[in-house]
Amino acid sequence: MTQSEQVLSYPIPSEAALEPPAEWAELRGKCPVARVTLPSGDEATLLTRYEDVKQVLADPRFTRLLNAPDAARLSANDDGGLFSSEMAAVIPDSGEPHQRWRRLVGKYFTAKRMAALRPAMAQMAEQLIDDMVERGAPGDLKAALGFPLPVYVICDLLGVPASDRDRFAHWSDSLLNLSKFTQEETDASLAEFIQYMSEHVAAKRATPGDDLLSELIEASAAEGEGLTDVELLATGMGLLVAGHETTANMIGKMVGMLLSDRTRWERLLADPSLVRTAVEEALRFDANSGFGLPRYLKEETEVSGTVLPRGTTVICSMAAANRDESVFDAAAEMDLTRSPNPHLAFGSGSHSCLGQSLARTELQVVLEVLLRKLPTLELAVPVEELHRVEGLVVGGLRQVPVRW
Which of 43-52, 63-72, 318-327, 360-369 comes out lowest in average pLDDT? Predict the structure, then answer.
């Protein structure tokens, strides 16, 4: 299968909720730089090999300028979805302005800070698990724990009332839209979200609290190179969407993976010290991580021997790259002791995920608390009956039915 012979539709569907599509291995082996058609009908280039994905994510010539006139539109909607929206363009894409933004926001997301949040996270997780147990088995682990926990945490970080979490859920879903919502629904959600966060930023300016936005406002004033209200707004919205939707789905998928072959769960019960490496392996092994990272090429570049012209939109499939046998021994096996584990689940280079310490901490805490409180946890349906969320940028399972 050469690049010119076949144009695949992307995202590539998979029959099984937790398994990768067979095409990934074929593409990595024979056509690592592949032409694909997106939900919008536009064409893009898909990368599936580890070294290629890592190279592109670290290369400043591959930008996030997905609102360029000749960039491929990602979603079925006219505006091309969240990646191409005006809000996405507010946060600086590269160079010193991007580094300044990362410096200011990154101060809040240190491993040390996240470790300090652990006790409160564990308490939230315990309460949510108690509530699920009280309602009786079977329960939906995604709805009961996976979804609410990261929302509570991110609301807490941003100083937003947790009582508004259902609104955030809806806004997130429609902003991560590929084909699930109409243009009108997406526009309405974006307008409501902007209105809400504008009022929230103004309130934090007037009365700062002990939260990320207040700290950014304070740091901005002190350094004299701070974020504008629009940048604060985009940062708050971005963190809210990225900070809860991806982790909420990952909690469900991680537990699904560990319970789909229950010897994995039993291994962790026997040795809870494996939680840290198990979380990393779940991130690597996730075959349903969603769309991947799109990049726009401002100048002609060569990848894997293929010349990509200026104006090419490239999709980096980190999930396919994480199954690359040339980098990971027995890549198709889930090895809870795998170390080192240089997976690309959080990207690579200067655009790697800012909130990765937060996500790791949440996933570790959830696993520790579940192992302790519900050692008899098991899937309440055969693994074949787990279904993927369709039509969104992020991958996830619709439900994770469990009993204990």
Answer: 63-72
From residue 56, how far is each of 81, 192, 229, 251 by CA, in Å? 22, 35, 31, 28
CA distance 162 to 363: 20
- Planar angle of CA 100, 106, 219, nearest 5 degrees: 65
CB atoms within 10 A of CB 233: 22
Does residue 3 fall inside a structural domain? no
User: Measuring CA to CA, which residue among 24, 18, 25 is closest to residue 261?
Assistant: 18
- Pairing mode of beta strands 8-9, 33-37: parallel
Tell me which residue of 295, 74, 261 sits closest to 177, measured CA to CA: 74
Give the torsion sign (CA, 278, 279, 285, 287). Answer: positive
**Maximum C-alpha span of the chain:** 60
C-alpha distances out from residue 386 to 140, 149, 257, 261, 266, Å: 11, 21, 11, 14, 21
Residue 246: give its domain's CATH number.
1.10.630.10
Q: Tens digit of pLDDT for each residue in 147-177?
A: 889 988 888 888 888 788 778 777 876 776 5
Residue 1 lies in a domain: no
- Closest among 35, 37, 33, 8 to 23, alpha carbons compared: 8
The verdict on residue 2 lying in a domain is no
Q: How far is CA 63 from the centre of its chain?
A: 18
In whole angstroms, what is the distance from residue 244 CA to residue 74 CA?
A: 22
pLDDT in tens, 82-125: 554 555 556 766 677 778 888 888 888 888 888 889 999 999 99
Q: Residue 68: which residues within 8 A CB-CB, separation 6 or more?
A: 296, 311
pLDDT digits (tens, 9 = 90+) for 310-342: 999 999 999 999 999 999 999 999 999 999 999
Number of domains in the chain: 1
Q: What angle do CA 249, 151, 245 make, to 5 degrees?
A: 30
Q: Is residue 241 part of a domain?
A: yes
The CA-based angle 362-239-182, given to 5 degrees, is 115
Range of the domain at 80: 8-403
